[in-house]
């Protein structure tokens, strides 16, 4: 089978969607399928080019940075990208992963070549619109993108979501019901790449941190992702306990994060901002973390949470939304009402005080991801979906005209 991915997030871009699209493309190739990816260039001034990475054919289009979200790119003349996407014409299925310029080009390519179209709802753009600073009409841009997002997925032959919460949100938001129910296909991670035991690099030594329990935040630095909730909780816990913490990632809240770590005496010296983390170094960071914290209220799922569980960290997740579905409270991690002041700090304090409980949660969390949250499981479910779409097309084509 040949599958064409259209996505505005693809490695080496660093975010959850690029992790999913890159991992899924590689695993589909490993399972004997052909994958061609249409994605943006990650640098200004770079023209169209084609390359092969890990057996995946990648076509990259000229792009510009999205204001306030410099890590994200918008293709120049995306409609032209649809016309130039000649390789999509040989695909059996076209799979759109984002509603941006390349995702829209994928929709047009599916129409042009008459291919089945799958769309996956990865990102809650409405929550992003509510969280970004009101500069340069950026919130309005994300609100418009949200409504475009709904229209695009509604027109797909089948839409998928990584969690039941994301599916329900998508189905509630459209003005007309989907012609076919949104399918839930949970995200997966490479459990061989993300596993316990990586000693290098030594993140404690690199960051000048001691041997106290290490609390980790890794994700976009935005209000909706909860980086300030994390810092508030660490400050509260550090008032009565010996803990250290790291914050990894980039985003519009970076200046405020840096200022807090510099000016707040409860955080200065205890918390390090480490910026974006290279993929090759992420398993070591997560595996060396005692507690991984996801204080987000907007995730449709969470690749970072799955990666942390796979690496053997005890995890704390929100008790609502897609990420909550990844954790069984008290069994594979802890769930908490992150929006209630003091609740996150209370749970973190309990885990800091109980190493045995942390270890038990970490072991069971890793086992759950290996059993049900692997990249292989996700890839095989998408293969089944693609095959069903193609079979339905074939049956329809064989029906005699009346």
TrEMBL record:
A UniProt-annotated Pfam family: Glyco_transf_4
InterPro entries (alphabetical): Glyco_trans_4-like_N, Glycosyltransferase_grp1
Glycosyltransferase subfamily 4-like N-terminal domain boundaries: 15-193
Keywords for the protein's UniProt record, in alphabetical order: Transferase
Keyword DNA repair: no
Molecular functions per Gene Ontology: hexosyltransferase activity
Stated name of the protein: Glycosyltransferase
Species in which this protein is naturally found: mine drainage metagenome
Phylogenetic placement of the source organism: unclassified sequences, metagenomes, ecological metagenomes
């Amino acid at each position: 089978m040949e599958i064409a991915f259209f996505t505005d997030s693809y490695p080496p871009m660093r975010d959850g969607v690029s992790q999913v699209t890159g991992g899924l493309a590689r695993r589909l190739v490993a399972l004997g399928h052909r994958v061609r990816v249409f994605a943006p260039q990650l640098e200004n001034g770079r023209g169209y080019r084609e390359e092969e990475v890990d057996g995946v054919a990648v076509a990259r289009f000229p792009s510009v940075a999205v204001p306030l979200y410099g890590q994200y790119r918008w293709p120049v003349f995306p409609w032209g990208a649809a016309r130039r996407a000649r390789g999509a014409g040989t695909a059996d299925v076209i799979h759109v992963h984002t509603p941006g310029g390349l995702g829209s080009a994928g929709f047009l390519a599916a129409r042009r070549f008459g291919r089945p179209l799958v769309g996956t709802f990865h990102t809650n753009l409405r929550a992003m619109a509510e969280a970004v600073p009101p500069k340069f009409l950026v919130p309005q841009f994300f609100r418009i993108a949200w409504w475009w997002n709904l229209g695009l997925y509604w027109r797909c032959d089948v839409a998928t979501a990584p969690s039941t919460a994301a599916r329900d949100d998508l189905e509630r938001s459209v003005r007309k019901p989907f012609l076919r129910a949104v399918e839930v296909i949970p995200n997966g991670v490479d459990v061989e790449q993300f596993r316990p035991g990586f000693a290098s690099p030594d993140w404690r030594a690199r960051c000048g941190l001691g041997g106290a329990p290490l609390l980790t935040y890794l994700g976009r630095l935005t209000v909706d992702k909860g980086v300030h909730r994390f810092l508030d909780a660490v400050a509260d816990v550090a008032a009565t306990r010996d803990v250290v913490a790291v914050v990894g990632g980039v985003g519009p809240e970076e200046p405020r994060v840096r200022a807090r770590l510099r000016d707040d005496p409860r955080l200065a010296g205890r918390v390090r901002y480490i910026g974006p983390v290279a993929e090759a170094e992420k398993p070591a960071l997560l595996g060396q973390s005692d507690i991984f914290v996801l204080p987000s209220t907007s995730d449709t799922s969470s690749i970072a949470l799955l990666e942390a569980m796979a690496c053997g960290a005890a995890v704390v997740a929100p008790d609502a939304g897609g990420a909550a579905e990844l954790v069984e409270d008290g069994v594979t991690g802890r769930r908490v009402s992150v929006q209630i002041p003091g609740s996150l700090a209370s749970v973190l304090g309990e885990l800091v005080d109980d190493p045995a409980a942390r270890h038990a949660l970490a072991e069971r969390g890793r086992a759950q991801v290996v059993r049900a949250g692997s990249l292989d499981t996700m890839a095989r479910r998408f293969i089944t979906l693609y095959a069903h779409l193609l079979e339905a097309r074939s049956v329809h084509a064989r029906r005699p005209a009346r």
